[in-house]
Write a structure and sequence with these properties.
Helix content: 40-55%
Low-confidence stretches: none
CATH superfamily of the largest domain: NAD(P)-binding Rossmann-like Domain
Structural class: alpha/beta
Number of strands: 14
Bound molecules: nicotinamide-adenine-dinucleotide, uridine-5'-diphosphate-xylopyranose
Pathway: Nucleotide-sugar biosynthesis; UDP-alpha-D-glucuronate biosynthesis; UDP-alpha-D-glucuronate from UDP-alpha-D-glucose: step 1/1
Strand order of the largest sheet: 3-2-1-4-5-6
Shape: globular
CATH architecture of the largest domain: 3-Layer(aba) Sandwich
GO molecular function: NAD binding; UDP-glucose 6-dehydrogenase activity
CATH topology of the largest domain: Rossmann fold
GO biological process, one term: glycosaminoglycan biosynthetic process
Catalytic activity: UDP-alpha-D-glucose + 2 NAD(+) + H2O = UDP-alpha-D-glucuronate + 2 NADH + 3 H(+)
Keywords: NAD, Oxidoreductase
């Protein structure tokens, strides 16, 4: 019987997942730990470290009752009957597999810490997205302790999307739990099933062997990203031919075999997961000698890179082949609406391209702080920080960002951009006033009537 659940990693997944689990399982104590003190402080405050609609209300209901946050990793490992590993698994930036393989050093460290501190039996749950067969390495580290406790390792990948995390957790399409298929493994699976069954109907909880569960997560993200790259590929053809990508998406999406979701053409997908997980899949295929399969999935990322640079190039070519010294306003920096997360956001790469062409960029985003934007640019290492700071600035007002701009680029689909006073924006811009809608959220006809020269992804002239 599970009384205490520990989660290592208080990030975008660990925080919201444990908060919802705690709300739905008031009889279980949840302890979320992280090495990042400021992140933990924020989880305990009224300013949570991540922005997610509805999250604060959930945290407020459970925090201090059966949901606790701290940096006491050792204590939390000792007390947890079940321990979730929800740490980051970024793309490796060094050595073998650099630029492709998942960097598992944080996960390995967690396994080593669990092995060191645990003094009774534990169920260890992989919540992080991991390459198939990682559980084997975790088991090996855990079994090497030799001091008594027995461990069961489960895979329970997370399918929430940022911006809708609470909704996705509350009404999950499905929950996936993989484990060993022997008696002890099946019993451990059942313990986790019970935790979810507090609010998820049993028929939506899928149980599998551990390798299927690990691989399903990478596969789900690869399929989702593939749909976006597919529609983005068609958007280029639409622009060349006069077809309209929204009409095409609607026409194909009504085929029940294809379905309407995830067919929104855009400036390119971002976020911490899609690119990382596909590259990881590519690496795994290569590792197993499946080179054709690797090339197949790699194209999804290649097409996404093309879509981002195609958008940047369109801005430059439309502005008479140079943006040098011109002011470009970016509406949005986050990788999608309703989040403050900027990881792999298309804005970063399009900004970099325009800065290479000596543009001045003024950014407005309702949730992203300026400091984060500079950290994102610094990671690219394209130019010295002073130059980024001279040419790239952030304002906390959309109208200010667009004032005296030669062009506006809509980079994130924040709802508030739809209701801006576009006449006012037009009046305060340089003419001709160019507008590049990278998210297909604006009324093209209305803006053209005001006087804007509008370019919308996937729409021919
Ligand atoms: P994150 O970077 O937001 O959070 C990870 C946290 O783990 C950080 O706060 C870090 O300080 C902490 N950490 C790292 N090593 C630690 C250690 N040894 N002890 C204690 N804390 C440690 O990452 P995230 O977005 O929450 O993603 C976590 C995992 O979930 C990744 O594998 C990711 O691929 C997967 N995932 C993410 C999403 C998403 O939408 N972000 C969705 C599904 C799955
Ligand atoms: C994704 C998966 O959806 C989720 O199941 C997984 O757990 C983590 O990775 P996330 O990255 O948070 O979630 O957001 P998602 O809604 O999938 O969007 C990813 C990117 O694709 C965003 O940049 C978004 O703007 C873009 N996108 C999404 C499109 O360009 N078109 C679409 O139709 C959908």
């Amino acid at each position: 019987m599970i009384k205490n659940i520990t989660c290592i990693g208080a990030g975008y997944v660990g925080g919201p997942t444990m908060a919802v689990m705690a709300l739905k399982n008031p009889h279980i104590k949840f302890h979320v730990v992280d090495i990042n003190q400021s992140r933990i402080d924020a989880w305990m405050s009224d300013e949570l470290p991540i922005y997610e609609p509805g999250l604060f209300e959930v945290v407020q209901q459970a925090r201090g009752k059966n949901l606790f946050f701290s940096t006491d990793v050792e204590g939390a490992i000792k007390e947890g009957d079940m321990i979730f590993i929800s740490v980051n698994t970024p793309t490796k930036k060094y050595g073998i597999g650099k630029g492709r393989a998942a960097d598992l050093k944080y996960v390995e460290l967690c396994a080593r810490q669990i092995a060191e501190y645990a003094d009774d039996d534990k169920i260890v749950v992989e919540k992080s997205t991991l390459p198939v067969r990682t559980a084997q390495s975790i088991k090996k580290i855990l079994s090497a302790t030799g001091h008594g406790p027995k461990f069961q390792v489960l895979s329970n990948p997370e399918f929430l999307a940022e911006g809708t995390a609470v909704e996705d957790l509350m009404q999950a399409d499905r929950v996936l739990i993989g484990g060993d298929q022997d008696e002890a493994g099946l019993a451990a699976i059942e313990e986790l099933v019970k935790v979810y069954n507090a609010w998820i109907p049993r028929e939506r909880i899928i149980t599998t062997n551990i390798w299927s569960s690990e691989l399903s997560k990478l596969t789900a993200n690869a399929f989702l990203a593939q749909r976006i790259s597919s529609i983005n590929a068609i958007s280029a053809l639409c622009e060349a031919t006069g077809a309209d990508v929204e009409e095409v998406a609607h026409a194909i999406g009504t085929d029940s075999r294809i379905g309407p979701k995830f067919l929104k053409s855009s400036v390119g997908f971002g976020g911490s997961c899609f690119q990382k997980d596909i590259l990881n899949l590519v690496y795994l295929c290569e590792f197993f000698g499946l080179h054709e399969v690797a090339r197949y999935w790699e194209q999804v990322v290649t097409m996404n890179d093309y879509q981002k640079s195609r958008f940047g190039s369109k801005i430059i070519s439309t502005l008479f082949n140079t943006v040098s010294g011109k002011k470009i306003a970016f509406l949005g920096w986050a990788f999608k609406k309703d989040t403050n997360d900027t990881r792999e956001s298309a804005s970063i790469y399009v900004a970099d391209q325009l800065l290479n062409d000596e543009a001045s960029i003024s950014v407005y985003d309702p949730q992203v702080p300026e400091q984060q934007m500079y950290l994102d640019m610094e990671e690219l290492e394209t130019r010295p920080m002073e130059v980024n700071k001279q040419r790239l600035t952030m304002t906390d007002d959309a109208y200010e960002a667009c004032k005296d701009a030669h062009a506006i680029a809509v980079m994130t689909e924040w709802d508030e951009f739809k209701t801006l006073d576009w006449q006012r924006i037009y009046d305060n811009m340089k003419k001709p006033a160019f507008l590049f809608d990278g998210r297909l959220i604006l009324d093209r006809k209305k803006l053209s009537d005001i006087g804007f020269e509008v370019y919308t992804i996937g729409k021919g002239k």
